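Hi V.,

Quick status before I head out on leave. The structure for the redesign project is tokenized and pasted below; the design run finished overnight.
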């Protein structure tokens, strides 16, 4: 695995960035995700054909964390960037870590074609997929919170099975436990209206396979990585 760097970048509050603050960090969450998507790319796009080789996350409006194979470069003098730190935690089997993850959790349902054959399904938000099975009306509204928690936590447990970690047995799916929030972000991207279901997780995990776990962190979890999802932050308890 290539060397990885963990970095923090903050939009400058002085001239010239201060004059552009409302444009670069709008108050509206949806607009800010779309703007940040373009903004953070300026720190890594060193050539027209460069493909994304980093994960990112907004920690607060105008503040971002990155996990990347290259250090970010501020070519437009818009950011204050802390010196990147080598990301190479020494983990052992059984280590307990505090983690935080913002994820676009999806499931692919494969519908049957006209002749009965299985066809490739489109990724579906796990929460919307769970709610789709519940009839509309009061029953769905009452079940919304449970659907969010159950679907989100089941998705994360499944990711752990192939990524060298597991959640404690007492991890919960309510606001006081592992899953802290769910929202739907609406974006205009490449002339297409996108809906991105975003789950925030925070809690403890146990390391079963250190090497596999670190490889999974480097890849990121779930979809929507270009829009600030997938980066798991970890620290020792």
């Amino acid at each position: 695995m290539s060397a990885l760097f963990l970095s923090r970048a903050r939009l400058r509050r002085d001239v010239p960035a201060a004059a552009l603050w409302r444009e670069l960090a709008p108050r509206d969450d949806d607009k800010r995700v779309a703007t940040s998507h373009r903004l953070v790319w300026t720190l890594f796009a060193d050539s027209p054909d460069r493909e994304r080789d980093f994960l990112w996350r907004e920690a607060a409006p105008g503040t971002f964390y990155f996990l990347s194979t290259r250090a970010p470069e501020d070519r437009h003098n818009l950011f204050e960037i802390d010196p990147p730190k080598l990301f190479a935690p020494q983990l052992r089997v059984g280590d307990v870590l505090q983690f935080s993850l913002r994820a676009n959790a999806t499931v692919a349902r494969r519908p049957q074609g006209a002749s009965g054959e299985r066809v490739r399904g489109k990724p579906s938000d796990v929460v919307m997929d769970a709610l789709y099975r519940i009839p509309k009306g009061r029953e769905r509204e009452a079940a919304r919170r449970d659907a969010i928690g159950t679907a989100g936590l089941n998705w994360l447990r499944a990711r752990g099975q192939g990524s060298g970690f597991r959640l404690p047995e007492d991890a919960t799916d309510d606001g006081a436990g592992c899953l802290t929030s769910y929202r739907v972000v609406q974006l205009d991207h490449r002339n297409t209206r996108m809906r991105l279901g975003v789950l925030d997780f925070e809690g403890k995990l146990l390391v079963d396979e250190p090497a596999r776990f670190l490889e999974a962190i480097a890849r990121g979890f779930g979809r929507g990585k270009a829009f600030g999802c997938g980066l798991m932050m970890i620290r020792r308890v």
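Above is the designed sequence. The first strand starts at residue 5 and ends at 11.

G. will cover questions while I'm gone.

Best,
W.
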